[in-house]
Each structure stands twice: as structure tokens, then as C-alpha cells.
Amino acid sequence: MLNTYAVIGLYALVALTFPFIVLLFARLVRPSKPNPLKNSTYECGMETIGDTWVQFRAQYYLFALVFVVFDVEVVFLYPWAVAYGKLGLFALVEMALFIGLLAVALVYAWRKGILEWQ
Amino acid sequence: MILKVVFLLVSLFTVGSALMVVTHKNLFSSALFLVASFFGVAALYVLLEAEFLAVAQVLIYVGAIATLIIFAIMLTRGMMSGRTSPRNDQAAWAGLASVVLGLVLLYVVVFRVQWPVVEKPVPPDTIEQLGRALVGRYVVPFEVASVLLLAALVGAVLIAREKEV
Amino acid sequence: MLNTLNVVRLLPELILLVTALVVIFVDLYARRRTALWLLPGVSIAGLVLAFVAAFAQWGAQEVVAGTLAADSFAFYFKLVAAVTVVLVILASVRYMRERTRFLGEFYAFLLVATLAVFVAVSATDLITVYLGLETLSIVSYVLTGFLRDDKRSNEAAIKYFLYGAVASAIMLYGFSLLYGLTGTTDLAEIARRLQAGDVLANLEWVAWPAVILAAVGFAFKASLVPFHQWAPDAYEGAPTPVTMFLSTVSKATGFAVMARVFLTAMPSLGEYWMALLYGLAILTMTVGNLIALRQTSVKRMLAYSSIAHAGFILMGLVAVTAPAGGHPFNGLDGVLMYVVAYAFTNAGAFAVVAAVEDGTGDATLDNFAGLIARAPFLAAAMLIFLLSLAGVPPLAGFAAKLFVFAPVVRQEYYALAVVALVNAVVAAGYYLKVVKQMFFVEVPERPAFAVARGMRWALWLMIIGVFGVGIFMNWFAFMSVRSAAGMLGL
Q1: Fewer C-beta neighbours within 10 Å, C or N terminus of chain B?
Q2: Do residues A9 and B44 lie in contact, with contact meaning Cβ atoms separated by under 8 Å?
């Protein structure tokens, strides 16, 4: 079983080291002639306006939160779905209750206008 | 043998990232190291042949919680640049206390206790068993978890919504 | 198992869940004027139904759905919780209406918190214990920080949250040690395996960490010193009806869970946790009382007094005689007596604080001056509650103190009894300070103020409760003894 994960691990290792190797290689072969213009921040060819580190709006957070809730739901749904063939009707009712409660959360967020971007 | 080396590497990666989380001076970087640490924990779960936990770890912690933490940092005023990680006079003592307590617990857990071991391989249908347990014996906690999520969402909306809404 | 699931046993929980959902939908879809009376109305109706559903099953003895106990111990706490939350709602109708627009969420959260209490007090599995407590905690954080424009409410919520998150994590670590040692999360099964030979040899090294770490989580909920630091700020900053809830129902839940986990899962570790609780009891009542002496805000003084009372409740748990049989004064029934007496008394005292805040804007000791002239009903009610807190007969507080002192003396924990006695006297001192302020300090220029109708009902009910528990002590004692003896797995 672990062998199948060894492939993933190897892949992750390559993916993680690859950028470093490329950057290192580039540093070794490229000429180094800095000037102020080259060193300035590049943003679509325009000079940057204001600070790059701005304060974000709280709405991002709420979206992320709704996402977390339903992400957790998926994790619960998965083992239930795997076992579904051997479970009775009652399991369906239980899962319906579980999802129904989360649906209430969604309806709440919806009605309160959280899902609309202002 | 190989497994031990892999375990050692993964653990070093996890603990190292975790240390960076608490020592880095920029809170945003700390959050990114936290993501790395979460990945390390997922790898540990794989080594323990707890595949479902590994998947859940990646899906929830790396996927969702990390996003949430990063958003939370980005929307906090003045948290984005410079030396943002709070540090005070108690840091050294707190660190010392944590290390001592951690070592004591490690000593107890690793050297002093013979943990009961089930000498059986992990059954192939763990996920299915988990699914049955969720709607069987653990149906009450399962539904309470759903209530918890509902309350958490409504509560967060209540607290985090912008003023005029 | 699925087919044999006895839904009737889950009825109190289901009623609360449905009521909470109805409240949310009323809030989303009803007109504001209708919602103003419909929200508290529906909530109270749901709680009353849940009370009836729980009361009708009094005497049941079984495990439902694998992880919930339907035993008299659980029902006892459910009844107390339902009654107290009704009182909280009555007291909060005007208070919250004037302070927030989000009333639907407020009542829904109170109901979900009650549901979490119901689950936690009957949980027979570590996972259910954790989920019940965690749901209660998360809802409590939001309720504490409910007044978003009030800085103190925000500060209280943040402190409560940070403290609570760490306490939960530590408690889970303790649970994981127990699970690792026994391979099960079922409380009764843990007890069985802890006594098996191969586990027993390991116990001496794991017992202390497991007991202490698990106790941190319960002690946090019950606000025992040294896990109390969140409590004064949270109690003071939270909307006062929420403080009523936190200082009674939430605290009682901590004790209920502590009692069940320690008594059913770790009876063999009794010497460890009893020693721990012995120390915590002395520390809690002493520290709580000493700091309460110096407070100038009545709300904050009551917060510290509430910490001190947690120490008294803990005395009962220290003096549990094993097995907690059907005879009185076994300690556990002292805990139960104290919880019900304290629920009426402390909720009442905080309700008066809420009414004074409503009338004068703040709950400083100064604002209580000459209360007898400005709001005689409030002053009289406060006097009753304070006397009950001090343990004066024939009020509830006296019955409660009697039932925790008696087992402590019977177990010959004389040191504990003496410390508790000294503490009771010290506490009476600062309660009398408020009484003196209300009755003997005259401030002529301050205007009189009226008390809201819901609040008046709540206060009357609590006064009746305080006298009722004190006078019909025997009946309540009978109920406590029955439910203490009825804890499953003992």
C-alpha cells in the first residue's frame, strides 16, 4: 500500500526541488548587471500605486468560512457514500438530516446577503 | 529501514515548519509555514496507513483552514507587513515551560508506557467501516457535528459581517 | 442498532433542535414587529416542551444510540438547564431588544447552547463529550461577543475564545492518552479496561497526565482556579443574560461532565482525581472570594463569587463515596443540590444586575446605592438572592451548602470543611456590602426606574425557586439522591 504513496512522495520531492534547481541554475549561468529600473517592482508594465500589502475585506473571510463548512461536509459524506451499499434507509435519513442542517446554514447566509459581493 | 528514514525526514520537515510558525517574525510567513506543517502531518498519516485521515487533513486543513487563516490575516489591519508576530518578555519562559513539559510527556509516553498493540494488519475496508460507524454507533456525535457547523457559520456571519449589512 | 434506536429518548434534544431551526426561519422570514414577540415565545415554548419530554422519561435507565445515556443523572441536569434558560430568555427580552438587532440569532444560539448542554450531560462516550462541550463553547463565545459595538463584549469574547480553544486542545490530549491506553472511547468500557492486568501496570505513569489533562477541559467550563482567568472578563463583558447562562448552566455542565467521566470511566483512578479536585476546590473558593472582596462593580464581584461557588460545588465531588449508592450525603447529590440552588440564586442575582443596568446604565456598586427607594422590588429580590448566596436558611443556598458540607465532614476531610467554612464567612462579608449599599446609603437625587415585564416574571420565578428549594429541601434532596444513584455504569 505504501508503495503507491512512494510514487506520490517522489513526485512531491521533484516538484518541491525543481524550482530551486531552476533558480540556482539561472543564477549560475546568467550575467549580473543590475540597474535601478531592472530592480523596480514589475506590475503589468505600470508603476505600482500605493502599498502592495493592503487590508482585505471581511467578506473574503465569510466566503472562506462557508467553504470550510461544506468542505467538512464532503469529508463526512465520503465514508458514508463508500458504505452506502450496506446501509439501510435509516442511514439515508441521518445523512439527510446532516446535510439539511448545513443547508439551513446556507439559506441563512443567503438570506442575510452574505453571498452577494458588495 | 527506508520507512524509518522517510519517517525521520517527514517528522523533521513537520517539526521544522512548526518551529518556523512560532518563530518567524512575519505573521503571514508563519501562516505559510503552517500549511507546510499541515502537509507534513498528512504525510505522517500516510506512513501510519491512515489514508482517510491523510485525505481529510489535506482537504480540510491544507485546503480550507489554511485559506481561512490566510484570509483572516489579510483582513486584519496592520498585520500584513514588517514584524507582525507578537512577542513579549514572556516568550522565553513560555518556550522553556513548553519544552520541559513536552519532554516530560514524551518521556512518559515513549519510555514509560507499554501501549497495548493490536497485532493485526490494517483492514482494507477502513473507510467503509468508518462510514458505518458514523451513521451507527456515532450517529449522535455525527449530527451534533452538523449542529456545531451550523452554529459556527451563523456565529461567524454574525461577528464578521460588515457594519452596514 | 439502527432499528432499535429509541427516538423517544432523543425527544428533548430533537425538540430543541427543531425549535432552534424554527427560530432561525422566523428571524429570516417574519416581519420585525411579529418577530419581537414570536422569537422569545417560540423559544420558551420549545424549552417547555423539551422540559416535559425530559420529565416524562424520569427514571429511564438506558444508553441511547450508543453514546447517550438516558439516565436520571442526565435528566436532572436537562431539567435544570431548560428551566434556567427559560428564565434567561425572560430576563433578556428587553435587555437584548435595546442592544442588538440580531434577536433571532440570539435566541437560536441560546437554544443550540441548551441542546449542547443536553448532549454533554448525557454523553457516555469521549467523542460525544467533546462534541457537546465544543458546541457549547463555540456558541458561548458568540453569545459573549454578541454586542459587536461594545468593546468590552468583544474583549470578553476574544479572551474566552483563546482560553477555551487551548483548554479544549489540552482536554483532547488527555482523552487521547485514555484512548491510547484502552483502545476505546466508551466511558464504561474504559473503566473496564483500566482494571485489566496489562493496562494496570502502565497506569502509574499515565494516570496523572490523563487525569490532569482531561480535567483542564472540565475545569475550564466550570471556571475552577487556576483555569478561571477568562471568567471575570467574560462574565463582566458579556450581555448580562448571557452571564446568567454562563455562570449557571454552562458551569453546571462542566460539573456534570466531570462527574460522569471521572466516576464512570476512571473509578479506579479515584485517588488521583480526588486529590486533584481536593486541591482545586480549596484553591478555587479561596482565590475567588479573596478577589471578590475588592471589586467595585457588582457584576464583576458576582463573577468572582461565582468562581468561589464552583469551589463549593467541587467539594461534593471530592467527597463522593464509592459506590455512590442510594443514600443521602454521598457527595454527588450535594453537587446536584448545589447546582439547582445555585442556578436560581445566581441567575437571579445577575438578572437584578441586568435590570439595574437597564435602569441606570451600569452595574457599579455606586449605582446600587439607595436601590430600595428607587426600585424596591429589585432591592428586595437582590436581598433574597444575596442571602441565599451567603447560605442563610431557609433559602436555597443553605440547602446547597448543607448537602456539600455534610458528606465532606462525613468523609472526615476536616481541613477542606474548615477552609470552606472560613470562605463562606468571607463571602457573606462582601454580599452584605451590597445589601448595605442598597438599603442604608441614601442618594436622594437619583430617579426611580421601572422593571421590564419579562424581567419581573423571571425574578418572581427565581424568588419562588430560591424559597422552594430551601423549604422543600427534602423533595429536592430526594430527587438528587435518586439521580445521583441513577448514573449509568455505577
Answers
A1: N
A2: no
Q: Among A88, A107, A108, whose Cβ lies nearest the Cβ of C2?
A: A88
Where does C195-324 have alpha helices with state H?
197-221, 230-237, 240-245, 251-260, 270-292, 298-318
- Chain B residues whose CB is inside 8 A of the C64 CB are 140
The residue-averaged pLDDT of C30-39 equals 89
| Residue C394 pLDDT exceeds 80 | yes
Query: By CA distance, what is C21's nearest residue in A?
Result: A104
Distance from CA of B143 to the nearest CA of A (A): 6
Does residue B146 lie in a domain region? yes
Radius of gyration of chain B (CA): 20
Q: Please tell me which chains touch C, using 3 or more CB pairs under 8 Å as the contact test.
A: A, B
Q: Tell me: pLDDT of C3 over 60.
A: no
Amino acid identity of residue A10, one-letter, is L
- Sequence ranges of the domains in chain C: 7-485
Report residue C238 as a C-alpha cell.
Answer: 458579556
Domain count, chain B: 2
Is there a contact between C3 and A90 if contact means CB atoms under 8 Å apart?
A: yes
Residues C72, C58 contacting (CB under 8 angstroms): yes
Chain B residues within 8 Å of chain C (Cβ atoms) = 105, 108-109, 112-116, 118, 135-141, 144-145, 147-148, 150-152, 154-155, 158-159
ipTM of the complex model? 0.90
Contact A84 B162 (CB under 8 A): no
Owning domain of residue B6: 1-83
Single pTM value for the model: 0.92
Contacts for C253 with CB less than 8 Å, ≥ 6 apart: C77, C81, C117, C120, C121, C132, C133, C136, C221
**B165 confidence band (pLDDT: 50, 70, 90):** very low
The distance of B51 to chain C (nearest Cα, Å) reads: 19
Q: How confident is residue B136, by pLDDT bands cut at 50, 70 and 90?
A: confident
What structural domains does chain A harbor? 2-111 (1.20.58.1610)
Tell me the mean pLDDT in the region C158-180. 93
Task: State the nearest Cα–Cα gap between B107 and chain C, in angstroms.
Answer: 10
* Confidence check: pLDDT of C357 > 60: yes
The one-character DSSP state at C479 is H
**Which CATH number covers residue B71?**
1.20.120.1200
pLDDT, average across residues C148-173: 93
Q: What's chain B's length in residues?
A: 165
Chain B touched by C155 (CB under 8 Å): no
